[in-house]
Write a structure and sequence with these properties.
386 residues, 50% helix, glycosome, Glycerol-3-phosphate dehydrogenase [NAD(+)], glycerol-3-phosphate dehydrogenase (NAD+) activity, 6-PGluconate_DH-like_C_sf, NAD
Length: 386
């Protein structure tokens, strides 16, 4: 039986899996908040360099990290080490999450569980699973029901520079979402809780596909009208896909939805936008991925998104066109022309049927799915005074 560890009122011990751009950024944020932070990395050179100089030699290289952060690894942390943590935070690309959770599961004490937070954004290749389902498959439904997701418009460099930022913190378990919000909340980093982790996950994954589309548009020389069209129609598609999946349509109007979509579609600091921009300039996907220097999850997410779109039977021409450019060799200008030549249609339309994939996932988690009031609506109502 799952039993959450009692959170202390003082500093927490936090283990972050992943020393990439965002994992490093969150380590800095939590270290700056006086928590004791351990950042696990696979690369020995990163570990040695970080512990000697308090700088990451690969990501955020100009940033001086707080001294209460220790890099650990490359071997997986021991059961005893994990047992001493209050928080486990996962900043691992979605495609590598399953294998890491399988290794971790025997080391978790379900009678004294740390708070588990996930910040990855993607859909698993092959299974087309969201992170929630990966967690349920590897760690069990009781753990999956209590995990927390953080998502929103949050570039790493701006967070470490303490620029004002807000994010969504979502979980099926309200108490766990509240804990994560308190852990991260600072005057420059505001957290809003949410009871729709499925919608938060879909937003975080799918917005990367539309960021590739926006980058392609800019790379081809199109300007503000076109970018605004892609963002707005992308939001419409995202909402339609998410609602058909079983998420709340309101989630896509929040920070993890339109907020993150706008950010990633309008800034060259977005890796996914950069992939699209270079495609629009005529570079091949192979060359871009070889020289990008970091993971652009939208490239792999486009595969899972296409399968979900087809399975749900929803109309998402922008996301489908991005898939065709990435994986079917379609010319970017042909893709744009075909999109613009589509016949007129209604601007806003939700799918006639909704919820089958979410109901299946919630049954896997052992959550009630026949209630007339969805889980996300119940939590949103309880949080209305915030």
């Amino acid at each position: 039986m799952y039993q959450a560890k009692q959170q202390s009122s003082g500093p927490s011990k936090v283990l972050i899996f992943g020393a990439g751009n965002f994992g490093s950024c969150l380590a800095s944020h939590l270290g700056d908040s006086q928590h004791d932070v351990y950042m696990w990395a696979r690369e020995e050179n990163i570990i040695a360099h970080f512990n000697k100089y308090h700088r990451n030699p690969v990501y955020l290289k100009d940033h001086a990290f707080p001294e209460n952060i220790t890099a650990v690894g490359p071997a997986p942390p021991s059961k005893e080490f994990i047992g001493g943590m209050d928080v486990l935070l996962f900043a691992i690309p979605t495609q590598f999450l399953r294998e890491n959770l399988r290794t971790l599961r025997p080391k978790l004490n379900v009678d004294k569980m740390p708070l588990m937070i996930f910040v990855n954004k993607g859909i698993e290749i092959g299974t087309h699973a969201l992170t929630l389902e990966i967690i349920a498959d590897t760690c069990g439904p009781e753990i999956a029901k209590a995990v927390t997701f953080i998502s929103g418009p949050s570039f790493a460099k701006e967070i470490v520079d303490r620029q004002p930022t807000s994010v969504s913190v979502a979980s099926f378990t309200e108490a766990e979402a509240d804990k994560a919000a308190v852990l991260f909340h600072q005057p420059h980093f505001r957290c809003y809780t949410n009871g729709d982790p499925i919608g938060i996950e879909l937003s975080g994954a799918l917005k990367n596909v539309y960021a590739i589309a926006a980058g392609m548009s800019d790379g081809m020389g199109f300007q503000n009208n076109t970018r605004a069209m892609i963002i707005t129609r992308g939001l419409s598609e995202l909402t339609c896909i998410g609602t058909a999946y079983g998420a709340s349509p309101l989630t896509f109007l929040g920070l993890a939805g339109v907020g993150d979509l706008f950010l990633t579609c309008s800034s060259p600091n977005s890796r996914n936008y950069t992939v699209g921009y270079r495609l629009g300039k005529g570079e091949s996907l192979d060359e871009i991925m070889k020289t990008l220097g970091s993971v652009a999850e939208g490239v792999t997410t486009a595969k899972g998104a296409k399968t979900i779109i087809d399975d749900l039977g929803v109309n998402a021409p922008i996301a489908s066109s991005v898939y065709d450019v990435l994986y079917n060799g379609k010319d970017t200008r042909l893709a744009v022309r075909e999109l613009m030549e589509l016949p007129p249609s209604r601007e806003l339309e939700l799918p006639p049927t909704a919820g089958k994939p979410a109901r299946q996932l919630m049954r896997k988690l052992g959550l009630e799915v026949d209630s007339p009031v969805p889980q996300w609506q119940t939590m949103q109502t309880s949080q209305a005074s915030l």
